[in-house]
Amino acid sequence: MNENNALKNHILNVASDLFYKKGIKSTGVDAIVKSSEVAKMSFYKYFPSKNDLIKEYLEKDCKVLEYRLRAELQKKNICTEKALAIFSYFAELSSMEGYRGSAFINVFIETSMDLEFIKDQSLKFNSTLIKLFYEQLNYDFSKDVSTKMAEQFTQLLIGAIIQAQMKNSCDPVLFAQSTAKELIEKNYAENCYCS
After folding, report:
1. How many C-beta atoms lie closer than 10 Å to residue 126's C-beta?
2. Residue 86 to residues 5, 69, 79, 166, Cα–Cα distance (Å)
3. Which of the chain's ends, N or C, has fewer CB atoms near its CB within 10 Å?
4. How many CB atoms lie under 10 A from the CB of residue 29?
5. What H or E segment, with its residue span, contains residue 116?
């Protein structure tokens, strides 16, 4: 990594931390410049506006999240267990000190869709979850059933993430996981490809 990319990534990492802890509206360029210990000109060299920085923050977070979830999925052998492992990942996150929910949900709520790219990135987060659930469920269920369940699981999970943040507890995510498991069992009885 060259020095320019290292500095850009440093600014992005510092901003990501501030955005997550304090929110994007409460975090100004001056605070990011001060915390990252760079000149304001350097900041603007890499991020012509705060919106450019927010967009990269959300894009980076989506890539990191998908990478981490795929790593978690590799730890399980049975596909339906992999689908439930997605809930486990978020339950673990929500039990950590300093947990403030999903960056996508937080930014979306904080901005009330002021910017189209925020809506787009939030929908991409949603689509990523649907895709990951679908990939696991499609081994045992038809395309239609897998699609429906993936969407149900995503809605359960997003609601649970919000509740976990509000209650400062992983219990809502574990409850959502339990509900997802019941849906899997119900659909196994009715629609499984298994012999």
Report:
1. 18
2. 32, 7, 11, 20
3. C
4. 15
5. helix 116-137
Topology adopted by domain 57-191? Tetracycline Repressor; domain 2 (1.10.357)
DSSP state of 170: S
**Can you give the pTM of this predicted structure?**
0.86
Look at the block and give the residue holding tokens 């981490």.
68
Q: Where do we find the tokens 């498991």?
A: 181
Architecture (CATH level 2) of domain 1-48: Orthogonal Bundle (1.10)
Across 82-101, average pLDDT? 89
Confidence band (pLDDT; 50, 70, 90) for 194? low
Which residue type occupies 140? Answer: D
Handedness of CA 17, 19, 22, 28 (dihedral sign): positive
Domain residue extents for the chain: 1-48, 57-191
